[in-house]
Hints:
Oligomer: single chain
Family: Belongs to the YjdM family.
InterPro entries: YjdM, YjdM_C, YjdM_N
Domain Protein YjdM N-terminal: 4-32
Radius of gyration: 24 Å
Number of helices: 0
Number of strands: 11
Strand content: 25-35%
Domain Protein YjdM C-terminal: 45-112
Distance between the termini: 53 Å
Helix content: under 10%
Protein name: Alkylphosphonate utilization protein
Amino acid sequence: MSDMPQCPQCASEFTYHDGLxxxxxxxxxxxxxxxxxxxxxxxxxxxxxGNALADGDTVTVIKDLKVKGSSSVVKVGTKVKxxxxxxxxxxxxxxxxxxxxxxxxxxxxxxx
Length: 112
């Protein structure tokens, strides 16, 4: 049958889902799901030490990194503030002082 919950006010089985709420057509009662289903399929991005990273974190580079297409190098110990996590092989999007915007791999940073 239906996997919709019964109305908590009149116990009607004819409820329906409308956006973020359930609605009972018989008594017009509206309620939210007590335990909303959160789809957390996003993989957790971890640094070189295994710490989980989040948007806005500050990280430190643990290895000299050559900048592709340039003669400059991102030195060990460089702090990068306000990272943004993205999908892909290079999963950190950031701006490094003196170099500019670039993408980094999480394996070459540690959480500061």
